[in-house]
Specification:
mainly beta; four-stranded antiparallel β-sheet; 27 strands; 1% helix; 38% strand
Length: 310
């Protein structure tokens, strides 16, 4: 049978992954799918266009959770006995027109939560309204209809650099990649160099900014030794990327392990199963404690960005 997953709110962005086997990520959102989904899934570990599936997929966004379709022999997210994780984000309901930028957009924004989903059609250059009340500090973009990279803006790196969620690569420097000015409280920029801005092509953007006590986007410099990062709350979710060197993105959360420390990592740019960091990474009451000395998380002198949620 189909499986209902309770979240306590109507999710607008659902990211799913089996943790115990190698399998592509499955990403759905209500802007591309609408509130009656067409089952258009994206995979963060792949540059592929969205894949429309009628089985083995998310079948509905519900008032207090989501439903996945019945099990089949090729199941991605409802295979019998498979251990799954889902991270769910609340947006602002049905998308509305936004004309804050020079490029019209459709936006579903959770203003209080600092998160919005933005859909727009690319032009040579300009700005796009994101629907939030503060400048986005993390923007993840994708051209869902074609083979394309997951181009990612991070405020600690600035408007002239990008990362790619589907890649373990270090930061890429391109002048004015995110426009001639950094994102503002109403818009983010586009440029002719932007892979997130194909002329006449449909684009999707997931935008975040920090909210005191709820979320934090920031950076740190690795020490190669035990270090603590203060985010102002006890995290339930942390995503980290080394921006200086080749290293996979890492995600930790407090649901896949029975108790602190939460040591099991998943990798958004990989299809691989979770890896255990054996008590060397743990959440604290004010952030996270990082005893790892690897390039991925705490190499001496390397720079890192992170996204944390309480």
């Amino acid at each position: 049978d189909g499986t209902f997953v309770y979240t306590g709110f109507k999710p607008a962005w659902v990211i799913q992954k089996p943790t115990d086997v190698t399998q592509n990520w499955q990403i759905h959102d209500t802007k591309r799918d609408g509130y009656n989904p067409k089952n258009d899934n994206l995979s963060s570990n792949s540059t592929s266009a969205e894949n429309t599936r009628t089985t083995d997929t998310l079948s509905s966004f519900d008032a207090d959770g989501f439903t996945v379709t019945p099990y089949s022999s090729d199941a991605f997210i409802n295979y019998t006995g498979r251990t799954m994780v889902a991270w769910c984000f609340k947006a602002g309901g049905a998308a509305v027109a936004n004309t804050d930028g020079s490029v019209a957009s459709q936006v579903s924004a959770n203003v209080a939560g600092g998160f919005s989903i933005v859909e727009y059609t690319g032009v040579a250059s300009g700005t796009v309204g994101h629907g939030l009340n503060a400048p986005p500090e993390l923007i993840i973009t994708k051209q869902p209809g074609v083979v394309s990279y997951w181009q990612t803006y991070a405020a600690p790196l600035g408007k002239d650099k990008l990362l790619q969620l589907n890649s373990n690569g270090a930061e890429i420097s391109i002048a004015n990649y995110w426009g001639t000015n950094p994102p503002t409280a109403t818009v983010f920029g586009l440029s002719t160099n932007s892979g997130h801005n194909p002329a006449s092509g449909l684009n999707i953007a997931y935008c975040f900014h920090s909210v005191t006590g709820f979320s934090k986007i920031g950076s740190y410099t690795g020490t190669g030794a035990n270090m603590t990062v203060d985010v102002g709350f006890e995290p339930a979710f942390v995503m980290i990327k080394n921006t200086s060197s080749t290293a996979s993105w890492h995600i930790f959360d407090n649901k896949r392990t029975a108790a602190n420390p939460s040591t099991e990592a998943l990798f958004p740019n990989e299809s691989s199963a979770a890896a255990d960091y054996n008590t060397v990474f743990e959440f604290t009451s004010t952030g996270f404690n990082n005893k790892v000395t690897s390039t991925s998380l705490n190499s001496n002198g390397s720079n890192y960005i992170y996204l944390a949620f309480a």
